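Example complex used in Figure S2.
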Amino acid sequence: MNKYWKSKEEKQTETRVPGSQANRDKEDSSLEMLFSDSIISSGATRRDFLKLFGFSIASAAIAASCEQPVRKAIPYLIKPEEITPGKANYYASSYYDGNDYCSVLVKVRDGRPIKIEGNKLSSVTGGGTNARVQASVLSLYDESRYKSPTINGEIVSWEEADKEIINRLNIISDSGKEIILLSNTVISPSTKAAIDLFLKKYQTAKHIQYDAISASGILEANKATFSKEVVPSYFFDNAEIIVSFGADFLGTWLSPVEFTKQYAQTRSLTEGQKRISKHIQFETNLSLTGSNADERIPIKPSEEKTILANLYNNIAPAFGAKTFKSPECNYNTEVITRELIRHHAKALVISGSNDVQVQIIVNAINELLGSYGSTIDLDNPLQHKKGNDTDMHNFIESLENGNIGGVIFYGTNPVYDYPKSEIIEENLKNCDLLVSVSTEKNETSEACIINCPDSHYLESWNDFEIKPGKYSLCQPAIRSIFNTRQAQDSLLKWSGEKKEYIDFIKANWQKNIYPESRASDFFTFWNNSLHDGIFELKSINKSVVTSVPVNILESAFNFFEKSSDNIEIVLYEKMSIGSGKNANNPWLQEMPDPVTTAVWDNYICISPRQAKEKNLKTGDLAIINNRITIPVLIQPGQAYGTIAVALGYGRKSSGKVAEGVGQNIVSFYQMRNGVRFAYDTISSLEKAGTGYQIAKTQLHHSMEGRAIIREATIEEYLKNNNAGNEIHKEIEKHHRSLYKEHEFSGHHWGMTIDLNKCTGCSACVVACMSENNIPVVGKNEVLRAHEMHWIRIDRYYKGNEENPQTVRQPVMCQHCDDAPCENVCPVAATNHSNEGINQMAYNRCIGTRYCNNNCPYKVRRFNWFDYTKADAIENNTVDPAGMTLDLKRMVLNPDVTVRAKGVIEKCSFCVQRIQEKKLTAKLENRQLNDGDIETACQQACPAEAIVFGDMNDPESKVSKHLKDPRNYHLLEELHTLPSVGYLTRISNRKKET
Amino acid sequence: MYVSPVRELLIKGDKNYKKVTNDITKPIVNKPGKLWFLGVSVTSLAAIIGLFAMFITVRDGIGMWGVNKTVGWGWSITNLVWWIGIGHAGTFISAILLLFRQKWRTSINRSAEAMTIFAVMCAGIFPLIHMGRLPLGYFILPYPSTRQLWVNFNSPLLWDVFAISTYFLVSLLFWYMGLLPDIATLRDNVKNKILKPVYKFLSFGWTGSVRHWSRHESMSLILAGLAAPLVLSVHSIVSFDFATSIIPGWHTTIFPPYFVSGAIFSGFAMVLTLMIVARKTMNLTEYITVGHIESMNKIIITTGSIVGIAYITELFMAWYSGVIYERFTFYNRALGPYAWAYWIMMTCNVISPQLLWIRKLRRSILFTFILSIFINIGMWFERFVIVVTSLHRDYLPSSWQMYKPTLTEIAIFAGSLGIFFTLFLLFIRFFPVIAIAEVKSILKSSGEKQVNITQNLLENE
Amino acid sequence: MEISFSFTSKFKIPVFILILTGMATIGYSIFVLHDHGERFWANFLLNNVFAIVISLCGLVFIAIHNLGNSGWQVAIQRIPEAVSMYLPFGSILMFIIVISMCFDANHLYHWVHPEGDVILEMKKGYLNVPFFSIRTLIYLAGWTFMAIWLRKVSLKNDRDNDIKYYRKSITISAIFIVFFAITSSMAAWDWIMSLEPHWFSTLFGWYVFSGLLVSGVAVITLITVLLKKTGYMPQVSKEHLHDLGKYLFAFSILWAYLWFSQYMLIWYGNIPEETVYFIERLKGFNTLFFINLFINFGFPFLALMTRNSKRVPIILALVSIVVLIGHWLDFYLLVMPGTLGENAQIGFVEIGMTLGFMGFFLFIVFTALSHANLIPVNHPYLKESLEYHTQY
Amino acid sequence: MNKNKYLKAYYDDDGLLIKGLKSLKKEGVEILDVLTPFPVHDIDKILGYRRSWIARVGFIGGAVGAVIGFGFQVWVFTVDYPLNIGGKPFLAVPSFIPVTFEMTVLCAAFAMVFAFLIRSKIGPGAEPFIHDERSTDDRFLILVGVGKNATEETVSELKNKISNTGAQGIVLKDDVELSKNY
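Predicted assembly (2028 residues):
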């Protein structure tokens, strides 16, 4: 029964010698004691949990036992080679949820996946992650997941479910009605093969790919212009000028982890670069990308095409191309034109629009500039986002026409996230077979007759090909916690295939992929690929494309929306919640939006001017089109004449966390010929109430003229490499102390954060929550400024509030060597380690909060309530997100103490990681190398903005960064001697006058 | 000793020693009135509500309060400092005025000391319950623990532990030692069968022997000498809680003397509030005369002006320092979201006491009573302003927050008032409000009818 | 009860010797030393402000006792009155500094030239020569006026026995104390703290004030003992000395308390903009720094702890002298690091000029003493004072 | 009359008491004790009591407190468990002053109070010998020793002397209980 999933599938090493009968009984009874109802009902503590692991009992047993009593538990006599209790194993895997792809390492501790890290071997994501990927491990332990197959809500066995499904499939197939397999874009070759088997088996079956966030416009445009229906790869790192029209490529657009990595390279100045890219963003709502742009122009979404058309017309003559008639636009594109032409092949113009005509113009511009083959690659396209809106539209039509006999929803949730959800829901009732194959509970699965719950990706085998030749594998890190089966196995079963999916993948790889490798034998090839998590072939050379056919281009110019005074609504994705698929993840809900800093909500973003005109203020409620009432948040930078509302909220059936949070806004998608446009004109926006509270973690948005985030333009920087940071030298000169500084003879840990690389994506915030067992406190507590994050992204606005400049700064404990907090703790619970770490002894803390008051950075966090159920007093837990359920507690990192009520906590520089690596180095009898230790935030950062290391080692990267003229310390004039340095932000804008 | 006829008499009316005893012990010997029972029921109800709110706080966590990530201390520490401040009048009167030979202190010192002790008790509640983990509060004591860890002697909060407990104990000693002769008087005057043995026990066997008196006097004097710097030290150390930090608005060197002055200011205001009521209800107007009230008002105006000058000094220095954070903090105090608190503080503490320059108002009991309540409020707001406005907007604007108290906090504050007044009501019921022996000792020199006798006696020598 | 002090040659000769020493040193420091008069100006400022402070304490002494309805001090009241008579002369000397500042003839205050210094530019609204001069004028004129007024009322009472003079002197005292409360701190900021114009401390004014109390009481005590020993003050008993001794003891503790408060808070915060003050003093002046602490706190604390030492004139006088030297050193530490900095030293010039100022000061005080009855005969509390004895 | 006896002389005014006491003392009468409802100054001088040494006890107490207070902190922070706290030196003297001061005052105060109670043989539950209930109210008592061998004559002579000083009443008492107290 016990299964150990390792990178190598060496089942023969899983030697288990059962103990004697007597022993077994003893063990059993101990276990039973641990898991007896009385203990569970009294809330097994983490200590009990660890005690359990003292028996070296496999996690799967425990996982299962949360739901049912253990029947057999067999102690190790000879433990499996790779498993050392108390030591984590890392398994390479891949994350793909139909929207985001990321190659990852899964940290498994005592049988439980507890943390996701980026896989540095991947050429696509390169070790970066984003918040959603970081948070995905928590979804594994989501108690609202389906726990077994059901028919009409009744629990059945897999055999029964399969029998029923196959039976009905055959009937429908025989009747000639269509069977639709509605999935997200499938990027797994083996899954595709499995689907093919399925389609082959059932003649009327059709596979439709549906992406909740669609890139249909790009697909169609590329098909029209270059006859390639693909989403190209982009190379921001090659771009010297980036002009983006509403594409939030650092946050949510296509492949943000990859793009952030590339983008950060163009912003790096630490390796002696003399140039950074120029980034111009036209957009409606202030996005993460827009807030990082050198120049940002707020526009109405309907203006986008006009501006692009003008831009094309300006550029075209320079390349001898034909111009077309277009309306005038309010924005003068000449400067951009000049810049684009100057950088030509090093330029990149992108648009997030789903309008094929817009994308055609974009393609034409890029083609003229010569970006194809340089910053855009059509030959190694991104494989996800292949869902074509028209297909989906046709599917709905067929559904309405009653042509469809059965639908299998594989990971899709159109009842929630498709604009015409009520039509779908209504017509689904006419189908004979409705199967949901979904990892999480959702609105569509609730509408289905049969539920065949999919395993979580951490419980599944899979393979992916995100770009041609860029393969990666997904392997289970834990046995299925519930009675779930991964979708591919289901498909294979229904197709009549006997093989298990893992064998199916292997066979597929052996046949199709192995031949391309140079490995000596398949076994080695497979093992290596599994170990690395990836197998990558060299990319096909990027080719230059032929020019866009004139007639196609002309047709793109044939329709322009008339500008009107009507307010336009934009539907945007939040960094955290996205399309809403992961909305039930408390970590994501609690992650402050990097732009608004709000949590646990969506709202109308409205420009200050517009709000004034409409007599609205933050916290008012407004009704849109007399249909939907949403709270208002005044958002500087929101284009005047527009409002923006985030998708992904208002979930109806998703589990406790997301239900009732925010409003579902998908009905505001504009449908044009079946294509979803994420904006529309609204007919009315009226105030409908007041007094709503939006929980924001930051209330004040101005730096008040303080040198908190230091900035300069690239011009200034090139003239003077401490531009914007002149004060640093001055302050250092005056650094004097009344007492001698303590010396750190061994290590002296330090960190630097490159503000030029940091985009504010908040992957670090979630990574830190995951690594350090940070409690989720819920909206009410955040409203009371009780949030617990150890690292936060400070965001300030400067300048014109209609279009402010945005600057960001991650702030965590600065580990000051002259720490004001340490001085004042009456019980010495916080003091300085001999390696320069400001450490907290939670056990010692009595919770006076004096340290927090005296911390000028306000990075200390107090456990206001018993958020973790670690308190000695019972029945006082405040846990709105169910984080103290036994199941969710599985995600806790056993290396980090769970803090009790009344205790101060804060960033520890991931001291557990430092200790671990020090120990490893010691065991390996070597010096600790620079870069061995990575803090959780650093590991998660796709931009590599965070560097951690030993300041006593002059060769370490952190030492070098600290010597960089751009380096400064936050509030350094206070002589707190922080161990965290910040590198000034250098923007590529013109110097302000 | 010769007393110039220019001086105002301290005890009015036709008095002799017996009458003094009777006047002062009357409330103890007689049955308490309805008013007293009404008072005790109201205050003890408040105390019970407060205790319940404290229980809730300890059980559920500090989250029951409005404090947050930015403003870590709210009403709790405001109340602590306020109560400690009030607790300064008693010892100031007994110790420093004793050293300065201000005879008028004899009529008010006993109750002021009692008030001190009760106020310090109330104050002591707050540092305890503001701890996140009260059950582990004993960590704050330097006892040899199994982890061999001591406390942090660098922490002002630890100094507080020593300062407040020392102050409480020494004040208690001082008060009780002074009370001994009066308890003996009660022992010999009370007829009640239950109370008499209690007083007998409490009187420590005091008989009034001259040897005892002699030692008692020199001990009291040195205790006063010790208590005087102790008074200064306690509020100085409380001020260190703030002044040692690096938060603008907290970190300023003037805090120690300014806090001491403010403490005496608020303490006298509370003494006045209590005494003006007590002298009327307990028929002690001849002992606590308008002259006494005027003397206290003079202390009020002195300390109030010192406090006012300190406010202005801070304000000016914030500007003069040229430090943007300092400047902002004071700008924010005066014009920010908590400006109302600042201006309440300014009005009550700086502006209103200036009216006392007018002799007529200084000697008006009604005005003094109203003013004393104003000052109590003003001094509470002073601490609120210091604690909250400094914290809520400090260095990084990203962390700026507002603070609003919750019902729990309000209940705890009300509870502390309840506890205080309950104890005080019990005190006036069971112990003499005025130091009997001390009043007797000045009766001849400063009493209305005895002046001539004293002169004769001395002149005959 | 008429006792009058005659400023005879017994007193005059030493006083003139002191004055001559001072003149000689001033001549030396101006004409022989080639330091653009820096040392002269620094010492001039130091000694004159110190003398003003002592003189001011005489006024404060009277005012506080008047307001406190105190009686015991009446027997010695003429001494603080005489001490306060230095104020007009000290004011004139102070204005020599102010006038020379107007002509940029001394370099005591760096803020006179704020150009290029961001922080000084920020403070320009306050720290500028005209405003500084006006403020100095207000302080000095106010103090001088009230000192003369108070003394006049007191002397009038000698001739005319009427309680109204006592009442009037209380009114003057009240006005003075209010004026003083504000101006004393400001004067300390202006004259001393602004020598290091970047540095600031809210406590500074009160710290200087506590030094004023100690050194003023020391001077009053010394003159009392001197006059008693020379037979001019038979009315002064041990009880009076005891009280003066208690003042000296208590004010020394008060000074130490304020010193500690200021030092500890800055030490604790360790913010460079504040610590720079003490770092400078611990760097070049570290011996003096600790001597200062001992001589002004440790010594008087230990010496005056017992009852007896406060009642023996010789011990009291000795302690007073030591404390006076101590507070001169304290002033030296306040003034010198900001003016002469590393060039500061206690040498011929310092001692000579100090002696000179001492002579000048004593000359004025003795002259003032000789112009009035040593006993304010009609003071309503005189009898209390004469019959004064304490139980403790 | 072999037992020790004493006389209780009553006065109702402290002026008379002092006058009487002075003349009795002048005449060499043995004065055992004086009871007064409030401290009457100069009695101790008239009776020739030395100044109390309680101040010295206080000083010693305070000195011990100071040494323990300061020494303990130094020992903890430099010898027993040095911790780097906020970069402050281990021997952070300014930080140690407040606790030292408080310890000084605390020890001095307690030392004095205990010394006072012990020396005066009073304390919680001490059994007082009450000569007259009004001696804590408005009566002043002089206890005059009569001596073992006093005859009735000497007693009445003594009584005369006392009543000449203005005493309001004189009572002769055996000193059985009194001897317990002195």
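DSSP finds 32 helices and 40 strands in chain A. The two ends of chain A are 72 Å apart (CA to CA).
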